[in-house]
């Protein structure tokens, strides 16, 4: 996948059509200093923009491989365009994530992109690991990497809310103790 080419096309279309979006998952983690191999792009979008996003993706030659209330997956028959996945924001919590997204430079400052804040990436990882126990180890490892690099700057109240949603208070307290600078 040619990330720069795909992001150039997507960001231009998102801007033109006033799509509220935020980059998340693997590529977003790299912007916060956590590098891993990734083969696709993942975005959080407002569910109200689904039809516009579908048109954008179709116009770019992507085919919708899957869609549900929560997610849409698009694949391109052209290898360099790869796969782009969308998580649909329709609950207050996920809409708040979109509103908190930060602008980041990518590709040496050639482009700017909206990216979920580290706290919100943690929140999605908490949800993912609770929903799929097979992801627990990799997601908790990502959470700990985020906390180790950004612990002093994180809004721990937001993080606590995510862990509390899934009754993971003890794990939150252990992580906070380990990675949060004393106040």
Strand content: 15-25%
Largest sheet: 5 strands, mixed
Number of beta strands: 7
- Total of DSSP H or I helical runs spanning 4+ residues: 8
Q: How is the largest sheet built, in terms of strand order?
A: 1-2-5-4-3
The figure for the number of domains is 2
* Span of the ends, CA to CA: 44 Å
CATH third-tier fold name of the largest domain: Beta Polymerase, domain 2
Share of residues in helices: 40-55%
Q: SSE string, helix = H, strand = E? A: HEHEHEEEHEEHHHH
Question: What does this molecule look like?
Answer:
With 183 residues, the chain is an alpha+beta fold. It has two domains: 3-116, Beta Polymerase, domain 2 (2-Layer Sandwich), CATH 3.30.460; 119-179. It has eight helices and seven strands. The chain has helices at residues 3-16, 25-31, 50-59, 92-100, 118-131, 136-150, 156-165, 169-179; strands at residues 21-24, 40-46, 63-67, 71-75, 83-89, 102-106, 111-115. The chain has a five-stranded mixed beta sheet with strand order 1-2-5-4-3. A two-stranded antiparallel ribbon has the order 6-7. The mean pLDDT is 93.
